[in-house]
């Protein structure tokens, strides 16, 4: 297989990990003083999540984390990316009341990981805003960015001696667009103005948190994770190229430009009818140098002009649908190579981590086994795409597979399975899928090959 020949491009220091997020796996929603989050409220609102699923129990990782870490150890991953549930730490969204039992959970989790020689990487915000902060306006209120910085500082003070890799936000685009424009995600707001404001306050909170974390410790690697999607024009016409560049502004540059260049792309006005409003000092906070950029990559998009001047959206998707996952997303591994090369060219050089990549497929358990050949092919093709970027000199430092476990897939509830470990939601029993065995072998092979650049 082609990938085997390319394993030599991965340095022996490469991070081979898996990723999860608190609300998607932990459950224990009312245990040990955890407060409510916007996702508790959203999932308990009829009609918001498929089949009325909630994260109340999820994979019960809160109680079963020793078993899950044993699984990771068995697979042989070197790193684990997880997120902290903000409402477990600040149940009423106020840093005057810190929940010691919440901190104790992450303390145990980190120690158990380290006992198993697994290096932890922490995401501070993977979408579970404390409900009390939402009542005060959530990401539409700039004060939320101050509380986020306090929360970040608390976490670093408690875990910074053992956890060195920190990610402030997971996918600000999703918070802004899915949470505040389309309303598919919590808090379910649908307004262009709200999306622009939420995005800005998320970026601002990232900047403030970086300052607070750096003032607490100077030995941390701090970054942010963006969901980035490579965009191609359907044909090399002026109109299609313009459509692709507008879609690229919307997917990618809306976040990349402020973080790396210190300004928003001018074309936001063509999408939102106006530019984000903010204080000039905000940009100084947002553009602070990052130690790394986290990249979540699932798919690419092919676009054409909408051809309808009345349409509020100037771009039409013509993405091929021949090879799609259970989410309906097309499988385009080459988009990852192109994206990584582009990041290096336009914003680099900067250390990059693939903080999520993976796929949902309709897995079936047959005689206790899950032969998820489509997932193995997806993963293999994308890891090969990373090897191609490494061969071109792009500084990719690690890969976190989404996800360790089947879990609560947001608005799709438990209907979509992204795990390399199957979860039976009745018994909560875990079963390794073939992809888990495959990934374990791959890690073993990658780490035992001598680094031999060609
Ligand atoms: C991530 O978000 C989340 O971080 C994670 O919690 C979640 O479980 C996981 O992905 C799986 O969904 O227009 O067809 O090219 C994913 C963000 C944004 C990725 C929209 C796919 C559209 C695909 N997604 N994007 S397409």
Automatic annotation (TrEMBL):
InterPro entries: GH (IPR017853), GH_1_N_CS (IPR033132), Glyco_hydro_1 (IPR001360), Glyco_hydro_1_AS (IPR018120), Glyco_hydro_1_beta-glucosidase (IPR017736)
This protein's record includes keyword Hydrolase: yes
Domain of life from the UniProt record: Bacteria
Entry EC number(s): 3.2.1.21
Record-level GO cellular component terms: cytosol
Gene3D superfamilies: Glycosidases (3.20.20.80)
Residues of the active site: 171, 356
Positions bound to substrate: 24, 126, 170, 298, 402, 409-410
Molecular function per GO: beta-glucosidase activity
SUPFAM superfamilies associated with the record: (Trans)glycosidases
NCBIfam families: BGL (TIGR03356)
Entry's family note: Belongs to the glycosyl hydrolase 1 family.
Protein's name according to its UniProt entry: Beta-glucosidase
Annotated organism of origin: Sulfobacillus thermosulfidooxidans (strain DSM 9293 / VKM B-1269 / AT-1)
């Amino acid at each position: 297989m082609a990938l085997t020949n390319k394993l030599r491009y991965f340095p022996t220091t490469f991070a081979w990990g898996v990723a999860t997020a608190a609300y998607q796996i932990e459950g224990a929603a009312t245990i040990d003083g955890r407060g409510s989050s916007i996702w508790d409220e959203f999932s308990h609102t009829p009609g918001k999540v498929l089949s009325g699923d909630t994260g109340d129990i999820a994979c019960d990782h809160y109680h079963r984390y020793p078993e899950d870490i044993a699984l990771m150890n068995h697979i042989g991953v070197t790193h684990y990316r997880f997120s902290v549930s903000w409402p477990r730490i600040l149940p009423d969204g106020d840093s005057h009341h810190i929940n010691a039992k919440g901190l104790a959970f992450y303390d145990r989790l980190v120690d158990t990981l380290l006992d198993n020689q697994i290096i932890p990487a922490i995401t501070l915000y993977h979408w579970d805003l404390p409900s009390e902060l939402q009542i005060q306006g959530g990401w539409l209120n700039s004060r939320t960015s101050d509380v986020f910085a306090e929360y970040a500082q608390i976490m670093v003070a408690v875990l910074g001696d053992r956890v060195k890799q920190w990610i402030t936000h997971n996918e600000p685009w999703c918070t802004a667009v899915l949470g505040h424009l389309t309303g598919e995600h919590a808090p379910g707001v649908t307004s262009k103005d709200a999306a622009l404001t939420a995005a800005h306050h998320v970026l601002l909170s990232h900047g403030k948190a970086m300052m607070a974390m750096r003032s607490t410790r100077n030995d941390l690697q701090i970054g942010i994770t963006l969901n980035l999607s490579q965009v191609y024009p359907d044909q090399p016409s002026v109109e299609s190229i313009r459509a692709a560049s507008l879609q690229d502004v919307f997917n990618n540059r809306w976040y990349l430009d402020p973080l790396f260049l210190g300004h928003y792309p001018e074309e936001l006005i063509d999408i939102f009818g106006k530019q984000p409003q903010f204080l000039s000092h905000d940009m100084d906070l947002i553009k602070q140098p990052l130690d790394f950029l986290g990249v979540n990559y699932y798919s690419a998009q092919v676009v054409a002009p909408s051809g309808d001047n009345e349409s509020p959206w100037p771009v039409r998707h013509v993405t091929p649908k021949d090879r799609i996952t259970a989410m309906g997303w097309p499988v385009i591994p080459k988009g990852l190579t192109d994206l990584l090369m582009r990041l290096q060219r336009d914003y680099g050089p900067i250390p990059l981590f693939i903080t999520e990549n993976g796929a949902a497929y309709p897995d079936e358990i047959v005689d206790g086994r899950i032969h998820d050949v489509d997932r193995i092919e997806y993963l293999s093709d994308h890891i090969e795409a990373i090897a191609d970027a490494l061969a071109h000199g792009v500084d990719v430092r690690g890969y976190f597979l989404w996800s360790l476990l089947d879990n609560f897939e947001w608005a799709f509830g438990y209907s979509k399975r992204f795990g390399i470990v199957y979860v039976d939601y009745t018994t909560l029993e875990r079963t390794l899928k073939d992809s888990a065995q495959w990934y374990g072998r791959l890690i073993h092979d990658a780490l035992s090959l001598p680094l031999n650049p060609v």
